[in-house]
Amino acid sequence: MPSRSYLRIKALIDCLMAVILLLIVMIPFSILTLFLACYYRGNPFYVCERAGLLGKPFKQYKFKSMFDSSAGELDSDKNRVSPVGKFLREWSIDEIPQLINIIKGDISFIGPRPLTCDYIAFYNKNEKRRLEVKPGLTGLAQVNGRNTISWAEKFKFDVAYVDQFSLKLDMKILIRTIRVVLSREGVDQNESTTAERFKG
Question: How many CA atoms lie within 13 A of 43 on its CB side?
Fold first, then answer.
């Protein structure tokens, strides 16, 4: 199990840094929120349920990047992603509202990416270990391929993160995340902007 002392220290640092960053981006955050509300003619946020620490459900916030599907239509995510949404995803700007999740204690800056709760039923015993720490905005898998690697590889990185849980590893991931975001490395998978759904 990860060190409880570092878990507590990390949670405190996460909250403090998230508050500071949210204050810094408050003006552009507000402008973008108003723009997206007009662009999509409705809610500028995408809210979905994700599995948090030990599988506890929480509401994840993101800037909306897709048009709503028409009634009765089952459009793929690729077809529904808006031009603005594609830009937001490429630069990870759609993730900014998750600063609120960090302040609430739902997630951390660094950790396995939060996935939908229904995925838990498909995890094997080892894969479930990814739930032993809070999910994060970025993680070991995100700086080692992001959406271009398989689910098996992602889970391998997630479990490795749990096993090596430390400040040193978090700092390495943070530094590499900056490089990945600026280079937009691993954004697409087979020219799509959304990773393939996990089916076990």
Answer: 8
Give, as one character, the DSSP assignment of residue 5: H
How far apart, in whole angstroms, are the C-alpha atoms of residue 163 and residue 160?
5
Kind of pairing between the strands at 45-51 and 108-110: unpaired
Q: Is the per-residue pLDDT at 189 higher than 60? A: no
- Say whether pLDDT at 74 is over 50: no
Q: What is the pLDDT of residue 200?
A: 66
- What token pair was written down for 71? 């009634």
Alpha helices in the chain (DSSP H): 4-24, 26-39, 77-80, 83-90, 98-104, 151-163, 167-183
DSSP class of residue 191 equals T
Q: The tokens 């609120």 sit on which residue?
A: 100
Residues 98, 79: Cα–Cα separation, whole Å: 25
Backbone angles phi, psi at 136, to 5 degrees: -140, 170
d(CA 166, CA 180): 21
Please state, in angstroms and rounded to a whole number, the distance separating the CA atoms of residues 32 and 38: 10
Rounded CA gap, 104 and 121, in Å? 26
Cβ atoms of 180 and 142 within 8 Å: the answer is yes
pTM of the shown model = 0.89
Which one has a higher pLDDT value, 158 or 76? 158
Question: Coil, strand, or helix at residue 109?
Answer: strand
Contact at 8 Å (CB) between 115 and 196? no
Rounded Cα–Cα distance for residues 147 and 194 (Å): 7
